[in-house]
Amino acid sequence: KHCPYPSTPDILGISDELLACLCTWLDGHSLAQTVLTCLYLHTIPSIKSTPLAGICNAALKCCDIINDIIVSSLCYEEEDFVTCTYGSVIWSIELLLTALL
Fold it and tell me: Which residue in 46, 50, 61, 69 has the most C-beta neighbors within 10 A?
């Protein structure tokens, strides 16, 4: 059951898992199999917890920035870093505004 107001320990646990997924992605695994497995990232507008929504937005923005840096540097090998986002927009200002409204 989805709880709209997760407790503080739940938010810390979600944050910890999200950070672990981010590190795994940076280690060379697919974005879809790491960071994007967090279901909260796909439902940010419906998250009622401001801290959790902020953490989710920050994680997506970090992925967006890191991906842009790696792609624009042209100094990576596909086996070192998976830049494919599978057609999904990682982060956008529209997503942030929707989550804040």
Answer: 61
Distance CA 87, CA 46 (A): 22
At 72, is the secondary structure helix, strand, or coil? helix
Please list the ranges in the chain whose pLDDT falls under 70: 1-4, 75-101
**Alpha-carbon gap, residue 92 to 76, rounded angstroms:** 24
SS3 content of the chain, % helix, strand, coil (to 5): 60, 0, 40
pTM of the predicted model as reported, rounded to 2 decimal places: 0.74
Scan for tokens 């599978």, then name that residue.
86
Alpha helices, H only, 27-92: 50-73
**Which amino acid is residue 20, in one-letter code?**
A
